Protein: Fe2OG dioxygenase domain-containing protein
Organism: Colobus angolensis palliatus
Amino acid sequence: MATVAAPRRFCRCACFYTENLYVARYGLHVRFRNEQQLRRDYGPILRSRGCVSAKDFQQLLAELEQEVERRQRLGPESAARKALIASSYHPARPEVYDSLQDAALAPEFLAVAEYSVSPGADLKGLLQRLETVSEEKRIYRVPVFTAPFCQALLEELEHFEQSDMPKGRPNTMNNYGVLLHELGLDEPLMTPLRERFLQPVMALLYPDCGGGQLDSHRAFVVKYAPGQDLELGCHYDNAELTLNVALGKVFTGGALYFGGLFQAPAALTEPLEVEHVVGQGVLHRGGQLHGARPLGTGERWNLVVWLRASAVRNRLCPMCRCEPDLVDDEGFSDGFTREEPTTVDVCALT
């Protein structure tokens, strides 16, 4: 009798609860274990950025404690939101929940994916079908979705935003947007996008970063608008590889900017700027230092997909840069697994 493999259980690294806590007011990511450690490690730089009085520091301390508590509740609260949305939410554009069809994808993207699985496909041939934004930084661009699909997805996202359904933050830095797995778009849209299209492309572009071993993702949409988030500070993604697609709307400003691989933010002096093009996706390594310039006018919505390979991250957490201390969690979590990783050349280890 044939046996069916049990679903894989994905985990977080315990550093999620202590490392890389973002303090937007001071433009700083911090490690936080207790007040004494915070004062010792960050006192001088916090004072230089305006955290001067005892009241300032106590306010910061309370915010960090609240953020740690929020992160500890994330898994169960996200699962509860997803269940409520599945039972009570009525989509405006139900067709975006159908299984991903080729008609939703730009012809250029389909051609790139088709080439990537063809006999004899290699990096040189693939690069002839992509825009190379930076050869040195290994940043590329390609149209991903058609204009009608971008419009339909945006209409659905706005409808959900205006509904009374509960909403989780897209990530630890953005406050406005949508987690696609909570909305029910992981299974029909994001998983086939990763498995059928992105993986063969990434296998050729980034074989040293687990591009051919992608086994999970975290997909979310971020929104920038007046009175909401306007910009995004320097950071690395909790991902081996990232796809960032501009969905719309009409806007000025908000360009992406890039530094080096795992470069310290303070050392960023001459970043590479990349303008958004609606429907097109920027491909880059998760460890590439990057951020977003302030929005000028309008609204900007972007789909961000963090692509993860457990064979890579099980050896070295990209956030704390140590062997991961695994904690069980819900869904794809942060893409770590308890299985032994396969042998792989890891760019993050170099």
